[in-house]
Design goal:
With 59 residues, this protein is α+β, with helices and mostly antiparallel strands. Helices cover 31% and strands 27% of the residues. The chain has a 3-stranded antiparallel sheet with strand order 2-1-3, with no helix packed on it. The longest helix is centred in the middle third of the chain and has 9 residues. The protein starts with a strand and ends with a strand. The mean pLDDT is 96.
């Protein structure tokens, strides 16, 4: 299965609880941390939800 690398670029401070939980679900909890995930529709939806705080490094 294809993978996708996601990097956290924004802080979860002053964000809603569901956005914080989405970052944790993506395996991100600190600034500039990179997480490698399977490229599925569910993961893409999570990335879209917090797109203002993450960056796709590789696709």
């Amino acid at each position: 299965m294809a993978t996708i690398k996601v990097k956290q670029t924004g802080s979860p401070i002053r964000r809603t609880k569901d956005q914080r939980a989405t970052l944790i679900g993506l395996g991100l909890n600190k600034m500039h941390k990179v997480s490698e995930l399977n490229d599925t529709a569910e993961v893409r939806g999570m990335i879209r939800k917090v797109q203002h705080m993450v960056e796709v490094v590789e696709g």
